[in-house]
Amino acid sequence: MGGAWASGVNLYGTVVVLGMMDNFGFIDLPPDLQILASWWVLAIAIFLYLIEFVADKIPVVDSLWDALHTFIRIPAGALLAAGAVSGLDLGLGDEAQTVISLLVGGTIAAGSHFTKAGSRAAINTSPEPVTNSVASVTEDIAVFGALYTVVFHPVVFFVLLAVFVLLLVWLVPKIWRFIGDVFGNARHPAAAYGQARAQHGGANSGQFGKISLSGTRGKHQTAQE
User: Fold this and answer.
1) CA quadruple 83, 18, 51, 119: dihedral positive or negative?
2) CA distances from 117 to 47, 58, 114, 206 (A)
3) What tens digit of pLDDT does each residue of 42-72 get?
4) What is the model's pTM?
């Protein structure tokens, strides 16, 4: 579950950490995940991680990267979860055990991925580029911290995972609603950023009406004046 969550945020960093931990004797990966400890796999994962490290800090490029990795991170998270229970006898039968682990792992990876992707898309509506770099570094630290915690302090990780699920239920709809207001109602997202923020968080949000398509005031406001 820890690997599935981390892969939804940064798959290549997750592979590097798990593979290195196995090679240096901190963990023993299950048989179906031993491939992650291969130095060929680690070399490719490090190369892709470096590409993502750069792409993840460039506005718009990071969102395009996230969109592409929707089809990579989620299946990978499901496979990591299934591989983690390989060889275990949970009394469910091999097929049921595999299906359940795939569903749980894929769901967790999807939750962390869409939280990351939605947050990045919302950040990209702001004209300044610094926030992308801050968010990217924070995500990497969160991935490495989560994997360290799940290995050495698993109880703490499960508590944090429960908190994440609660935040997910509350935060993700707000993020995507905000993005919809900006990109769905304006040709110039940067110009509409302040209006969208005011609509969702401002005390006088009712007076803004629809976001102007040209970044100018709406007709109803002109008529009132």
Assistant:
1) positive
2) 22, 14, 5, 29
3) 999 999 999 999 999 998 899 899 999 999 9
4) 0.76
